Amino acid sequence: MNTAIYPGSFDPVTLGHQDIICRAAKMTDHLIIGVLNNSSKRPLFTVEERIDMIREVTKELPNVSVESFGGLLVDFARERNAGIIVRGLRAIADFEYELQLAQTNRTICPEIDTIFLSTSLDYSFLSSSIVKEIASYHGALDQFVAPYVEEKIRKKWGK
Ligand code: ADP
Predict the structure, then answer these.
(1) Which residues participate in catalysis according to the annotation?
(2) Below-50 pLDDT ranges, the chain
């Protein structure tokens, strides 16, 4: 069985993430979305809230599961018998960091490889940070996140 991990903060999951999830799920038998549990990033949503939102927006995808992880990504991948790490590339700005990460992971763990999916043009500008920025000014979010996620964001801002 061909298992892949799509790791990230997903704070919160956006339509850009969802696009990568749908495409990656078609290429693998099992796609695990690994939600990074890293308090130093000071996320807006708790890990449980982030997992809940991803589960809701991926409920139609039978081969996708969601869980949190801490520590090294390659250790998590090894534990789950995943040979592939999936990452999304938006613009050239992502490239340097993503390449460094992929090469580091391959040095530590040569049997696990990283594949990159390029973003759909519609979402090339989109990030969780931009969504939070717009939300903080109570701007419309329907082009950026699923309705369920929008509702959760509004609740955080008490609106
Ligand atoms: P991280 O904190 O690991 O960067 P993110 O949740 O920001 O976590 O992103 C997880 C992955 O999804 C990364 O590979 C990132 O490049 C990718 N990604 C984020 N937004 C988009 C988007 N709009 N289109 C495609 N890929 C994206």
Answers:
(1) 17, 41, 90, 128
(2) none
